[in-house]
Sequence to fold (286 residues):
Amino acid sequence: MAYLGNSARTKEVLAKFNMSAKKKFGQNFLIDSNVLAGIVEASKVTDNDCVLEIGPGIGSLTQYLAESAKRVIAVEIDRSLLPVLDHTLSDYNNVTIINEDILKVDIGEIVAKYNDNKPIKVVANLPYYITTPIIMKLFESGAPIESVTVMVQKEVADRMVMGPGNKDYGSLSLAVGFYAKAEAVMDVPPSSFIPQPNVGSAVVRLERYEERPVEVQDDKYMFEIIRTAFNQRRKTLSNSLANNPALKVSRQQVVDALLEMGLDEKVRGEVLSLEQFAALSDILQR
Fold:
């Protein structure tokens, strides 16, 4: 039975192995059983599911997942945690630990090897300093991923779920929205971790679309437009896009495209929806 969802047991395990959280890996260990149970509930994991967990740490969330899922594949970059995981997960025969960097592994190969290429669910308490690269790798990998349920920094969670016109709306909002429906699940205070982070956290569930919500001729070109627009928020869209040589467009071309779309030529990117960015991308590539 899962037993790591509290401070005393977590400290006991860390002391047993003379371990402490490593800043370079962004380690903060969850010590709140209600949050751990809430993450698993939000992920909608069943005993038919294969789960990919990223950064299991000492195995707190892994224990909860192992009791709900058919199989858990946990990717952990920190080699020193392997003996800890051997200890904390010794009662579970449905967990496989892979000692790799999630940003370097082939997620498609993992799904093929451990789940016969059938869709998996991703669940993780992500290192905050590399949240966005991990999220984008998951979606851009092309691997069959049904959903992604993750604990992230509250500020990042807000960016994932916000729409146009909000101060938290940005390239991450649009990137996530291109691949999945984002739902805020719960806020998590710093006191739920050892050591306590300096910021609040939140759990977000991303349910991948079976069909993308917009059609676009070249999604890479569209995301270059999006990145450019939000890298220079204070500039008008026509000026910022014209200043990026990779887009190969003039200011007048952007102005003409915006007017064709019924938008003001002085509009900024923060008010455009995903559908509008897709339309702009297609017009500029004609």
Remarks:
- Residues 64 and 128 are 21 Å apart (CA to CA).
- The first strand starts at residue 29 and ends at 30.
